[in-house]
Specification:
Low-confidence stretches: none
Oligomer: single chain
Order of helices and strands: HHEHEHEEHEHHHHHEE
Radius of gyration: 18 Å
CATH superfamily: Vaccinia Virus protein VP39
CATH class: Alpha Beta
CATH topology: Rossmann fold
Strand content: 5-15%
Largest sheet: 7 strands, mixed
Strand order of the largest sheet: 3-2-1-4-5-7-6
Structural class: alpha/beta
Shape: globular
CATH architecture: 3-Layer(aba) Sandwich
Helix content: 40-55%
Number of helices: 10
Number of domains: 1
Distance between the termini: 40 Å
Length: about 260
């Protein structure tokens, strides 16, 4: 199955910002409900330990809620980790809720951040969850090259896959919204309107979910992107991880400067 560079509706500039935030809230709720990225905590921990980094800069954070679970699975020695959420279209209300729920252990950057041109003052292990596939190959390479140019470590994690079995899961994924939408916090009447009366949120999530699968890079394609990078020597690791035999594997890419290896 060849990769298809098609559009996802909620990431388009013309898509209403309020609805985009509803989409990212619903997406974060689903990922947290399933604890989808929990298996990646040991890998994130190993990068932080290897590079002796205490800061994480999460890019394309969406609703940011995945870090509430992930942060609890990390084990700082003495000094706690500093986690900063960023996004090109920051969902400030969601970010504020995450900050409050984390008791201010998770912070956010209020201005727009382009993952291909991260501001120089944002230093730390860069992470991207379920968002790298949004970018065409040249954009994906620009994200990695920007990290290399800044001498920052980076981790890419994708739960979507270009496989019929994963694409099929997008349908029940959209349907569960009709059950769990009243539980999404903060509660909003508009979310009920756009889920039950005019089901824009489930339909957009279904469409974008299928497109996400079709756009997701396979490990060998990530290697091809890495080969075109220039700059200082980096240690790269690309693969697929599954904690259980029946669990869909998570594709990951991590890289950090050789000089940071302990």
């Amino acid at each position: 199955m060849r990769r298809v560079q098609f559009i996802e509706l909620h990431e388009q500039p013309w898509f209403p910002l309020s609805l985009r935030h509803e989409i990212t809230d619903a997406l974060e709720f689903g990922l947290n409900l399933l604890k989808a990225y929990a298996p990646m905590a040991p890998l994130v921990q190993s990068v932080l330990d290897s590079t002796r980094s205490r800061s994480i800069v999460d890019m394309c954070s969406g609703g940011g809620g995945r870090w509430l679970d992930l942060s609890r699975r990390l084990h700082p020695d003495a000094q706690p980790f500093h986690i900063l959420l960023t996004d090109k279209y920051p969902n400030l209300r969601a970010f504020q809720n995450v900050r409050a729920a984390s008791e201010n252990h998770i912070a956010f950057y209020p201005d727009s951040v382009d993952a291909m041109k991260v501001p120089g003052e944002l230093q730390g292990f860069r992470t991207m969850f379920t968002s790298f596939h949004h970018f065409p190959p040249e954009g994906a390479r620009a994200i990695l090259q920007n990290a290399v140019d800044a001498g920052q470590s980076i981790g890419i994690f994708e739960i979507t896959r270009r496989a019929p079995s994963t694409i099929a899961l997008m349908f029940p994924w959209a349907l569960i919204l009709f059950v769990f939408t009243p539980l999404i916090r903060p509660f909003r009447w508009s979310r009920l309107l756009w889920t039950y009366l005019v089901p824009i949120i489930p339909l957009v999530l279904l469409f974008d979910g299928v497109v996400s699968c079709l756009r997701t890079y396979r490990p060998e394609e990530m290697y091809e992107i890495i080969k075109k990078l220039s700059g200082i020597e980096y240690r790269w690791e690309v693969g697929e991880y599954s904690k259980a035999s029946r669990q869909a594997p998570i594709t990951y890419l991590i890289g950090y400067p050789q000089a940071h290896v302990t």
